[in-house]
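Technical annex B. To support the medicinal chemistry partners, we prepared a structural model of the target in complex with xanthosine-5'-monophosphate, based solely on the information shown next.
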Amino acid sequence: MHPDISSVLISEEQLRVRVKELAAQISADYQGKHPLFVCILKGAVVFFSDLFRAMKIDCTCDFLGACSYGADTCSSGRVDLYKDVTEQIKGRDVIVVEDIYDTGITLDFVKTHLQSKQPASLSVCVLLDKPARRKPGIDVRPEYVGFTIDPYFVVGYGLDCDQEYRHLPYIGIKK
Ligand code: XMP
Ligand code: MG
């Protein structure tokens, strides 16, 4: 285990199994459709690449760059959209893929942003949900949730602390 990690919260094997389950569920729910995944950079990239490869139906992808965290472990409370999608959203069945639903500020912003582009439908898939951290008034209700976790600061499998640890194959609690 990495020396900066105190314990593994979700193992490689647990991630592998759950991501396959999510992909199977999304594939069934979108049968007969051709969804467009919108992966939120950078945290969701590792989760997204596993989820996307496990999809059983035809689908496409795009990327949106948004961040609400600075170099700290605490939300800045404001979202910076540094890269917009390039695919046409209008009329598409869009599935937003995000690493974590924490305060909800990022997902709330992203949903409003994409909704303004008039998709046929818009759903949200998050790997992690930290309900204890929700900002009052925010109610995104992701359609797909990998794991619900206690309010630890976690890293790995795409999640970072000051850009480090994204490559770890498990979700760990930072010391
Ligand atoms: P909000 O507060 O907008 O946060 O829901 C979502 C974004 O915050 C980052 N985040 C974390 N990153 N470990 C991380 O590495 C965490 O425990 C954590 N909690 C929130 C994440 O990038 C997400 O996009
Ligand atoms: Mg992020």
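Notes passed to the chemistry partners:
Residues 40, 43, 67, 99 surround magnesium ion (ligand 2) (CB under 6 Å).
The mean pLDDT is 95.
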